[in-house]
């Protein structure tokens, strides 16, 4: 295998679970399950198909004779008919009724829908587990004051836990989108060459009700509630767009998280996990590069750009069917899922091992707090008899002087000393120190964390408790 290209998504990033969903075994076993469901349905609706034929099909549902199919495809240049032929070689009694009345999209499109639904369920499990880890982190640090940033400039403080709720809320919105799309997934069913079910109407001797029942029966046998009510030969390719949009939304949220972690790691306030033997740089041995967060961002860029693939495919389909979707779908759908799978494993791994440095956070906080405390200081000075307008101007001037000391001279922020030395305020340094309690400036951040967890997240986690407890193993 070292002499040919292998996708990094399989080799480095995606889990075995997700790789299996889009594996040849899963695909072609699903084809055979669909052929069995079709034969059973046709038998139940009165066609001359025997139980012996169905039993023969079931006996070979999993032992796929790949070499026969590959050799046949070289000859006929048609993957579905090659597998019909290969299945028939194993099932001589059922050979004549395999794929009866169906077109290629009966197995191809129905399988794509089944695999996408199954893959969305795996994505959902991982997404809920990331939310659970973030909830635990937010609860732990809900009262830890920290500088908030607007424009990456120090702004009114927040808490470390409150910031985590922002990451969590993005994922919660993604989960809502995922649940909506997953809940609306249906099968194509047995619609025929142009979606009119003409071949099935012929098989059932003009019985429209049997044609309708066939769709419903096949859907139920494959674990779906229903089939799409109308289609051409294929299901609407807009469905692929809806699915990949969900994946791109998750990628978008994860990318934002990775940006924040990398910026915080630069500030030395928060770090992603760094293992004992991990090497941060080939040249600079001291470095602790945020490589997992960087990989999240890199994979997320790929998934977000992948949205264009199903959009272009859906917008350029002609009438009831063209085949210029096929090669694109084989790439864009599985690889979008494999990339998001890798993203969520990384996200779970990073959150599970996030390291917080409260002393560094406090140091940065206290360096900026005098500026942020000026409104409280001004109010105290007014209470002591000062003029609000005059004090505002004095604070503005002193703040600019303290800013120059920090930026131009590399000194500590001495705003409190400047204010204490100004008789207009009538306040001592001890008076001013009472304004320097960080928790006074975080507003309702701790309460917002508690409310969000109690009212939104914990009920969600309780509903999904049977899928919690996953850990992510990353290979590189």
In short:
The protein is mainly alpha-helical and 476 residues long.
What does this structure look like?
The protein is mainly alpha-helical and 476 residues long. 63% of the residues lie in helices and 4% in strands. It contains 20 helices and 4 strands. The strands form 2 sheets. It has a two-stranded antiparallel sheet. The protein has a two-stranded antiparallel ribbon with strand order 3-4. A hairpin with a 2-residue loop joins strand 1 and strand 2 (153-159). Helix 11 runs parallel beside helix 14 (326-352) and helix 12 (291-306) runs antiparallel to helix 14. The model has no long low-confidence stretch (mean pLDDT 93).
Query: Could you tell me the number of beta strands?
Result: 4
Q: Helix tally? A: 20
Indicate the multimeric state.
single chain
End-to-end Cα distance, whole Å, is: 19 Å
Mean pLDDT: 93
Strand content: under 5%
* Largest sheet, strands/sense/barrel: 2 strands, antiparallel
Helix content: 55-70%
Main sheet: strand order: 1-2
Low-confidence segments, given as residue ranges, are none
The Rg value, from CA coordinates, equals 31 Å
N-to-C SSE series?
HHHHHHHEEHHHHEHHHEHHHHHH
Q: Overall 3D geometry?
A: elongated
Q: Label the structural class.
A: mainly alpha
């Amino acid at each position: 295998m070292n002499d040919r290209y292998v996708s990094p998504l399989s080799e480095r990033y995606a889990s075995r679970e997700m790789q299996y969903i889009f594996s040849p075994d899963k695909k072609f076993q699903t084809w055979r399950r669909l052929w069995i469901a079709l034969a059973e349905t046709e038998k139940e609706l009165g066609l001359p198909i025997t139980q012996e034929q169905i039993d023969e099909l079931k006996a070979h549902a999993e032992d796929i004779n790949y070499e026969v199919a590959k050799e046949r495809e070289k000859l006929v240049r048609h993957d579905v008919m090659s597998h019909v032929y290969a299945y028939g070689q194993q099932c001589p009694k059922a050979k004549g009724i395999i794929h009866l009345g169906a077109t290629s999209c009966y197995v191809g499109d129905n399988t794509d829908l089944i695999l996408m639904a199954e893959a969305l369920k795996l994505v959902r499990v991982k997404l809920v587990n990331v939310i659970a880890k973030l909830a635990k982190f937010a609860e732990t640090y809900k009262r830890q004051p920290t500088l908030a940033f607007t424009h990456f400039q120090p702004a009114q403080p927040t808490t470390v836990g409150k910031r985590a709720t922002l990451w969590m809320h993005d994922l919660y919105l993604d989960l809502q989108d995922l649940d909506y799309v997953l809940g609306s997934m249906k099968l194509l069913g047995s619609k025929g060459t142009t979606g009119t079910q003409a071949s099935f109407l012929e098989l059932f001797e003009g019985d429209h009700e049997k044609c309708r029942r066939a769709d419903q029966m096949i859907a139920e046998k494959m674990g779906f509630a229903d089939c799409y009510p109308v289609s051409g030969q294929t299901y609407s390719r807009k469905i692929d767009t809806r699915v990949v949009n969900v994946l791109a939304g998750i990628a978008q949220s994860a990318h934002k998280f990775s940006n924040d972690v990398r910026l915080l790691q630069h500030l030395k306030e928060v770090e992603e996990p760094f293992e004992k033997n991990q090497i941060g740089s080939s040249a600079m041995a001291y470095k602790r590069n945020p490589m997992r967060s960087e990989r999240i961002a890199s994979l997320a860029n790929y998934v977000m750009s992948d949205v264009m693939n199903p959009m272009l495919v859906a917008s350029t389909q002609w009438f009831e069917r063209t085949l210029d979707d096929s090669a694109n779908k084989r790439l864009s759908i599985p690889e979008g899922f494999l990339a998001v799978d890798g993203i969520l494993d990384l996200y779970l791994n990073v959150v599970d091992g996030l390291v917080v440095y409260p002393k560094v956070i406090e140091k940065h906080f206290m360096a900026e707090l005098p500026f942020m405390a000026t409104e409280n200081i001004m109010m105290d000075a007014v209470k002591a008899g000062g003029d609000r307008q005059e004090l505002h101007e004095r604070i503005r001037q002193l703040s600019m002087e303290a800013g120059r000391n920090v930026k131009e001279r590399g000194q500590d922020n001495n705003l409190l000393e400047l204010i204490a030395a100004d008789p207009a305020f009538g306040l001592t340094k001890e008076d001013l120190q009472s304004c320097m309690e960080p928790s006074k400036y975080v507003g309702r951040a701790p309460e917002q964390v508690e409310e969000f967890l109690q009212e939104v997240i914990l009920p969600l986690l309780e509903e999904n408790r049977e899928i919690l407890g996953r850990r992510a193993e990353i290979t590189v």
